[in-house]
Design brief:
Layout: H1 7-11, H2 14-49, H3 51-58, H4 64-83, H5 87-108, H6 116-151, E1 154-160, H7 164-172, E2 184-189, E3 194-200, E4 206-217, E5 221-226, E6 234-242, E7 249-257, H8 266-277, H9 280-297
Antiparallel strand pairs: 1-7, 2-3, 3-4, 4-5, 5-6, 6-7
Helix pairs in contact: 2-3, 2-4, 2-6, 2-8, 3-4, 4-5, 5-6
Length: 327
């Protein structure tokens, strides 16, 4: 579905224009895949039911076996594209099929039954369809890469010199989390399982979401996920288990970030998406180190007033100072 760009578009704020382009790209991808799917089904059915007629129409003569094989391939690709599952694979399959069709047309030129004018016209049509297939494949590959960057689980472990009971109790009191997670401005506990989280992204963009605990095993595990409709989409867990040799507790954090949700303008969406996807293993590890310092020493060393390096996790440019004393 194309969206025309005219004078009115230039008057929109830049962020809104980016948001519209994002929606247009997604609509283009879905519409192209759906159109190619129906085209493949129609062509495939014709090749299966009337292989000789199709062969004569494109100038290669009576080749019923070849036509039926091509028809079966087209139907499989069409069903795959319309199902919406693995669109990248089926779009690439269409590109390969186009190459096979062009090869078949070229091979048919040596036949005495061939109609060169019709073959040339058919080859031109196939080349045009190939261009569309390549464009659809490009969009699907880009979308797959974006999803892959977000949906890969990140796991970080650290040994802390404290019993599991103490660490679980501290973490389970969710409003303690901003004390060592610099990305968080606040966590408001709404009930036993639901809480509201607030962070500030670079440039002062305020982001909030609601999270719910989905698994709670005292002194062992806390698992959570964001609720539907949240601006941020992620799920994660923290597990507490005795470390080998009685050296404290092994804390294991696993997090999976999804795409940013909600009606954000393009500029804010881009900053948050970049923030959530930037070296998550490193930033989670930094947060765990601060958790360790807070538990073991009662404070987190700070460099306030000194030159600083890169800040940690979602909340660069936070205005709230991290508390220095452990409960």
């Amino acid at each position: 579905m194309a969206i025309a760009a005219g004078p009115a578009m230039s008057k929109l704020p830049q962020a809104a224009s980016r948001s519209i382009r994002n929606l247009r790209d997604r609509a283009d991808r879905e519409t192209i895949n759906r159109s190619l799917g129906w085209f493949s089904l129609g062509l495939g059915v014709a090749q299966l039911l009337a292989p000789r007629a199709v062969g004569r129409a494109i100038g290669i003569g009576d080749r019923p076996i070849a036509m039926r094989l091509c028809g079966a391939r087209e139907i499989a690709s069409g069903i795959g594209l319309l199902s919406g599952r693995a669109p990248t694979a089926f779009a690439m399959a269409r590109v390969v099929g186009d190459a096979m069709d062009l090869a078949l047309l070229g091979a048919s030129l040596g036949s005495r039954r061939a109609n060169r004018n019709r073959i040339a016209a058919a080859a031109t049509a196939v080349a045009g369809v190939t261009a569309v297939d390549l464009y659809a494949s490009k969009l699907d590959v880009e979308e797959s890469r974006r999803q892959a960057r977000h949906d890969q689980p990140v796991t970080v472990s650290l040994i802390i010199n404290a019993p599991p009971e103490r660490l679980y109790e501290f973490w389970r009191k969710l409003d303690n989390l901003p004390r060592f997670m610099k990305h968080l401005q606040s966590v408001e506990v709404l009930d036993e399982r639901v809480s509201r989280w607030v962070a500030v992204a670079p440039g002062g963009a305020r982001v909030q979401w609601e999270s719910e605990i989905i698994d709670d095993r005292p002194n062992e595990l806390i698992s959570w996920r964001t609720r539907p409709g949240s601006q941020v989409n992620h799920r994660g867990s923290v597990r507490f288990s005795p470390a080998p040799g009685g050296r404290g507790t092994l804390v294991r954090v696993e997090m999976i970030h999804g795409a940013v949700q909600g009606a954000l303008n393009g500029g804010i969406r881009a900053r948050i998406t970049k923030l959530l996807g930037a070296a998550p293993e490193v930033v989670i590890k930094e947060d765990l180190r601060r958790f360790k310092q807070l538990i073991e020493t009662g404070e987190i060393p700070t460099t306030r007033g000194q030159p600083t390096g890169a800040r940690s996790f979602i909340g660069q440019n936070l205005s709230r100072t991290v508390h220095q004393e452990a409960e």
